[in-house]
Design a protein that fits this description.
mainly alpha, two-stranded antiparallel sheet
């Protein structure tokens, strides 16, 4: 498949640099895909999309300082994984245990004994402004900065919506199961 990406490059020097970049970053991009998917086919799809995107914008990437290349490539891979998730309307597990852990702004930990599917269902029933921020933050693990950029709003507004949405989620859980802080 690497030969397809090489056809997107014109300069022979860029082809050699791309091959080197491909071999040195393949494992980290694969691990990034594994954070999103358990099925190898989805990881492969995301890798193909990411490497194609990298090849198409290789002149920009090759001009980056060496310390910024890996974070940039990882961001490309994350975005391709998120694109697949949106397309397939599948979400990675929010929590791995039966006990879900949410940390609030004051570093207190709130343990919510709630089945994962019920919790995701509660998030999906929330008003769109809060639901989207909660899904992006808790399910897709995006930072406030990433959410702000993709939604074209300020980082402060993202933080406020997350805080309010999280409070609404806790209230919903309290009302549903008789849970009290």
């Amino acid at each position: 498949m690497i030969y397809f990406y090489l056809t997107l490059l014109e300069n022979p020097e860029n082809k050699a640099l791309f091959i080197e970049m491909y071999h040195s970053h393949l494992s980290i991009l694969t691990r990034t895909g594994q954070r999103f998917f358990s099925e190898p086919s989805f990881i492969e799809d995301a890798l193909q999309m990411a490497w194609e995107s990298i090849a198409r914008s290789f002149s920009k990437i090759s001009s980056l300082p060496p310390t910024e290349v890996t974070p940039y490539l990882v961001t490309v891979m994350k975005n391709k994984c998120k694109d697949i998730l949106r397309k397939e309307k599948k979400y990675v597990e929010l929590f791995t245990d039966e006990v879900a852990v949410l940390e609030d702004d004051f570093s207190e930990t709130i343990f919510i004994e709630q089945d994962y599917q019920e919790l995701v269902a509660l998030i999906r029933k929330m008003p769109d402004t809060y639901r989207e921020v909660l899904e992006r933050r808790l399910i897709l693990e995006e930072s406030n900065i990433e959410i702000a950029k993709s939604m074209s709003i300020s980082e402060a507004l993202v933080a406020k919506r997350y805080s309010r949405g999280r409070s609404l989620l806790i209230e919903s859980l309290s009302a549903k199961d008789g849970y009290y802080e």
